[in-house]
Write a structure and sequence with these properties.
This protein has two domains: 48 residues, no CATH class; 238 residues, MetI-like fold, CATH 1.10.3720.10. Helix content is 70%, strand content 4%. It has 15 helices and two strands. β1 and β2 form a beta hairpin. α4 packs across α8. The two termini are 38 Å apart.
């Protein structure tokens, strides 16, 4: 009897909500076909892949960890791993707080038109590709003909090799990354700020709180959960590296600090037709990123935050 009633409730529920499930069918199908089914090709990391035979008809490598051993015994792999960690850590340490500070500053602007104009200007670089940005940077920062170095020499200073000296290249790489993405991430924090109850600010005004105190005691605690979630997500990408940014900005003079895992995979794996090696390195990156993500999520929950899982 109870089972019959539960079946009737389920039928009634589906009758009311079948349209929603139908709407969900397309994105779920997309995720299964283009996200989950390709994961089966992870087996390539454990096979001697032959492009003419395909993944499943290729022979298993002997031993199974052959391609991981090839990667881990390569000096270039460890240099690329080191560079990836250093650049991503610097990106996180410098690039993560900047959108928060920018959102706080924009939120404090009194004139709406100027506020909207500023917000539009700072997030426009997000829509530029790294090919365009690297081209602009190379024109502006060229040692002899770049606008920046021409201005420096005109005032009596020596030219600076921004893109050919290791330390300066890293600084330029990080600065351009922060400039490109700070405005886009600011949108998320501004949206979180708008959800804060305005009565809290009114009460703070009555108590005579300054702007800095309102930011410290109301705004920042109000967006703390958003900050932590984005920090966890960024930490989960600490070993991942986009390809277009380092590939477009690197050159032969700074390869010892510019070569990251994505460019290493392209140079050694794809151009060298070692596709199993690329799969092994990609699997290694994914596992390490998941470990960082779960660790950061566990720490966040330990301190009373919701986390993302």
């Amino acid at each position: 009897m109870k089972q019959r009633k539960s079946m009737q409730k389920m039928a009634l529920y589906l009758k009311k909500t079948w349209v929603l499930y139908l709407m969900m069918a397309l994105p779920v199908s997309f995720a299964i076909v283009f996200r989950y089914l390709p994961m089966t090709n992870i087996a390539m990391a454990f096979k001697d892949y032959n492009m003419f035979k395909g993944v499943w008809d290729s022979q298993w490598s002997e031993p199974l960890y052959k391609w991981f051993e090839v990667a881990f015994t390569s000096k270039d792999f460890w240099y690329a791993l080191r560079n990836t960690l250093i650049l991503n850590m610097l990106d996180l340490a410098i690039g993560f707080p900047v959108p928060i500070l920018l959102a706080l500053l924009i939120n404090e602007l009194a004139f709406r038109r100027y506020k909207r104009f500023t917000q539009a200007i700072v997030y426009l670089p997000h829509f530029l590709s790294w090919i365009i940005i690297s081209g602009i940077a190379k024109q502006l920062l060229a040692p002899r003909t770049g606008v920046v170095n021409v201005m420096l020499t005109n005032v009596g200073l020596s030219s600076v090799n921004f893109l050919t000296e290791n330390a300066l290249y890293i600084g330029t790489y990080i600065a351009l990354g922060v400039w490109k993405e700070m405005g886009w991430n600011t949108i998320i924090y501004l949206a979180a700020i708008t959800s804060i109850n305005p009565e809290l600010y009114e009460a703070a005004d009555v108590d005579g709180a300054s702007r800095l105190k309102k930011i410290w005691h109301i705004t920042l605690p109000g967006i703390r959960s958003t900050i932590i979630i984005l920090f966890i997500m960024n930490l989960g990408r600490i070993l991942g590296s986009e390809f277009d940014r380092p590939y477009a900005m690197s050159n032969s003079l700074v390869m010892n600090v510019a070569d990251v895992l994505s460019t290493y995979v392209y140079r050694v794996g794809i151009r060298g037709f070692q596709f199993s090696l690329t799969a092994a390195v990609g699997l290694f990156q994914s596992v390490v990123c998941i470990i960082f993500l779960l660790t950061a999520n566990a720490v966040a929950k330990r301190f009373g935050e919701r986390g993302i899982i």
